Amino acid sequence: MAIDSLPSFIKENYQHLEVNHATAILKNDFPSEWADMVDMLTNFRLRRSEVLAPGGRKTTIASQLDERLYALGWEEKQFRTSIIIDGHERHTPTHKIDCYKNRVAIEIEWNNKDPFFDRDLNNFRLLFERNAISVGVIITRSTELQDIFNSLGKGASYGSSTTHWQKLIPRIHGGGAGGCPVLALGITKSLYDETC
Questions:
Q1: Cβ atoms within 10 A of the Cβ of 25, count?
Q2: Which of 6, 76, 104, 133: disulfide with 127, CB 3.0–4.6 Å?
């Protein structure tokens, strides 16, 4: 399968799962966006100082990921959609996509409440069905990182009901994204840098 052809660095440092041939679609139909994403993932490091930093609306950890993409022309994007029933138009706006470029949607869920996964996958499904995106990517943290958070005294900030790998995978396997091709990636301990 195409997921087996992920770059070795990504296979060794991220948990990974795909549905509906997401990796093949990204690599073959969107090579520029694929290269941007591989570059972002290859250069990401989970820094001790960022784990210890106070929380807020958006952590520097999530910003480290999406700002690299924004510098390459990606954007936060909300689609204006509507449906018409018997001549009556009903506006049905979607949730904003964290990073969007050329039909590729990336959501970064570092430490939100786990129902955000349902929102993201449903958004992917709707946008795919309306021919607005071709593939969705979710980047989250591996559940194994909890050991690091606990050792730093930050375990309570990263509780079991927040976004992490074990909360995401059952939602993907349960069909939360419908027919939308999805690539899921989980940041693992090997990317942790305790020196900075």
A1: 19
A2: 133
| Domain regions of the chain by residue span | 2-76+101-193
Tokens for 139?
């980047």
> Would you state the structure tokens that stand for residue 158, as one six-digit string?
């990263």
Report whether CATH 3.40.91.20 matches the domain 2-76+101-193.
yes
Over its length of 196 residues, how does the chain's per-residue pLDDT go in tens digits?
A: 677 889 999 999 999 999 999 999 999 999 999 999 999 999 999 999 999 988 666 788 999 999 999 999 999 999 988 888 898 888 877 889 999 999 999 999 999 999 999 999 999 999 999 999 999 999 999 999 999 999 999 999 898 899 999 999 999 999 999 999 999 999 999 999 999 9
**Amino acid (1-letter code) at residue 135:** V
